Amino acid sequence: MQKNEYKNVSIRYNTQSDGETNCWRVICDGIEYQTNKVVVKGELITTKDLIDGVGFKHHVTIEDAIVEYSVDYTLIKNRQKFLYKDILKTITYRILGTSVTFGIGFFSTGNLNVAVALGFSDLVLKPIIYFVHERLWHLSRS
What we know:
Largest sheet: 7 strands, mixed
Shape: rod-shaped
């Protein structure tokens, strides 16, 4: 399955399909692919686009999209939505992680100052490390 980012991805039903294969036309920045199934995660709009030699066609369009394409299955996601979710996921994960680190520090040492220092260090350093790690994973899947 290939994965790429596009500024504009449009989808329309393939009227030349037999209903079982190549059911959908997916147009990624002007390059057309055919696929059997399309799943869209994120925001989309409907557009009326002029196709050379054909006329106007209506499409479902996704802007700033990440497309994971194969003939059998195509997944389309809004790139911006997933960056926002990565940031939110980082924050909630850190609240949980910092609480655990603080608890371990306090119950291990019985010293509130040590527990606060450990919790604060954990709170400051690990979100940065996690966010960079998450983005590298996203890039590696491109």
